[in-house]
């Protein structure tokens, strides 16, 4: 599992989007109980905090201690630094296992073995993430140019799994059909720029070039953004759900 975000943990916590309630509304009726959940690759804890509203206890793990330092606290969330592929959890521990925008960094086979070990019989695993955002055709074109041409060569190979909507990731569970979901946010231009700054390829570019590719397109983005204070930002959601054992 790679750690591309420890050095920008504060920005990640501030600018990465939370997930829509629709995801949880789909998952929860599938569960026989809401006792203990594991949010794997929790990052700065956006999903863990949501799970904590409905579960008695949530274990949230990540390989980045810096990310966990920026995660929100709750009495029933236990944060620990652990690899996704090998944990200290007892067998048959969890009713729900979630991985949000992180599974593409894992060793798939080892992670799936760990999921089968720690998931309770008839428990649920849910993988979710999001694709490239949509705002307006003019704004989207600038962002697509950033994504494909400016920082295109700086994406890790694992990014292909996002582009392929996680369909190329081994999923040895009884898969359930999921709804199409779009995450809608209302952002100002500064929120958009902050989000773009958290891209892993942007971080790699900055380390190599010593300059910000987001800064390079900021003027053009602000121009096409126009005078509207906020705009609708759409994140198409990647969503795979399966039963364990």
TrEMBL record:
Question: Per its UniProt record, what SUPFAM superfamilies does this chain match?
Answer: S-adenosyl-L-methionine-dependent methyltransferases
List the InterPro entries: Methyltransf_11, SAM-dependent_MTases_sf
Q: Which GO terms describe its molecular function?
A: methyltransferase activity
What CDD domains does its record include?
A: AdoMet_MTases
The keyword Transferase is annotated on this UniProt entry: yes
List the Pfam families.
Answer: Methyltransf_11 (PF08241)
Q: What protein am I looking at?
A: Class I SAM-dependent methyltransferase
Naturally occurring in which organism (per UniProt): Sphingobacterium faecale
